[in-house]
Amino acid sequence: MNTVIGTILASIWQIALTVFIAVSVSFFALALVPGDPVDIRLGPLAKIPAAQREQIRIELGLNEPLWQQYLTHLKNLLTGNLGYSYNQHLEVSTIIARQAGHTLQLATVALCLAVTLVLLGQALLRYKKPWGQPAGLRDKIFNLVNVILTATPNYWLGFLLLMLFSVWLKWLPSGGVGSWQAIILPAVTLALPVAGVLGQLVNTELNAVENTQFALSSRARGVSRARFAWSHGTLHAVPSVGAVTVNIIGSVLGGAILVETVFARPGLGRVALDAVLARDMPVVLGLVALSALVFAVLSQLLGTLITLTTKRRGH
After folding, report:
1. pLDDT at position 232, please?
2. In terms of domains, do 117 and 187 share one?
3. Which residue in 110, 79, 42, 77 sits closest to 269, CA to CA?
4. I need a surface site. Which of 29, 125, 273, 289 has the fewest CB within 10 A?
């Protein structure tokens, strides 16, 4: 019981520390960026008296020393207050809530598609392939495709898919969120590079487990190579895949900034890009805090999953 409580407390501490470091670094980094938030709030052409400008600075808390602004920001975060946008004049939590669904939908579809492609690729690669057969043409093509997908930038891939399926063939819409067809091209754009990374990793793990004593025993019992891969090899690959899952999710969410821009989709990616370009500090810091929290929680959950899977595999 004490061990469980200690593990939970350690996880909470690591999550809190991750969010604290991410928010602190981002706060002081943004403070170094030139530009007056009052000008951002009023617009570049606004001409108002100095007294009114100072009143706005007081309302935004910008008249306080930087360290005091920092402590106020941390205090607000602890109470769930992410602040107000300089540009949109809305609560940051409201802005995030309005756009999070679009990005979550895109990321979920892309990840599911990537996993499906990896499983299909492994099934085709090992279909009717006997034990001990050396790498052949099928393996070389598989590895080449994975390398190409991994090395292809999201924005370039998105542009090619947009030109081919939307502009030339006119099969799919070029953007928006009005129909289920609108998510196909953005999801494929995000999924293909992820499938390339996962495909290489899973294939390496499956090849490694095929050389274990357990694999030799299964082979002696007449178990086919494909059946062994599905029944035991996939479980063996879970820890390695789980170890890079957080990075993959980060890559998907980071790629969403470019993909949502290319395909004119609403979402947190567009919100982040617009906020950075406009130096809308509350929005940027709110997104940083949310991202750090999500990644920290996922890291802890995946760490637990890997531990449980490793123990099960050991038995």
Report:
1. 66
2. yes
3. 110
4. 29
**Backbone φ and ψ of 290, nearest 5°:** -65, -45
The two three-digit tokens of residue 158, written as one number = 């998105």
Please give the Cα distance from 267 to 245 (Å, whole number): 22
165 and 49, same structural domain? no
Assess whether 245 and 201 both reside in one domain. yes
Which of 113, 94, 83 has its CA nearest to residue 196?
A: 113
- Tell me what pLDDT residue 24 has: 92
Residue at 90 is within a domain: no
pLDDT at 279: 80
Range of the domain at 277: 100-314
Helix residue spans in 127-233 (DSSP H)? 137-151, 154-161, 184-209, 213-220, 225-228
> Which positions of the chain have pLDDT values less than 50?
315
Same-domain pairing of 104 and 59: no
pLDDT at res. 95:
92
Phi, psi of 91 (to 5 degrees): -65, 140
pLDDT recorded at residue 235? 64
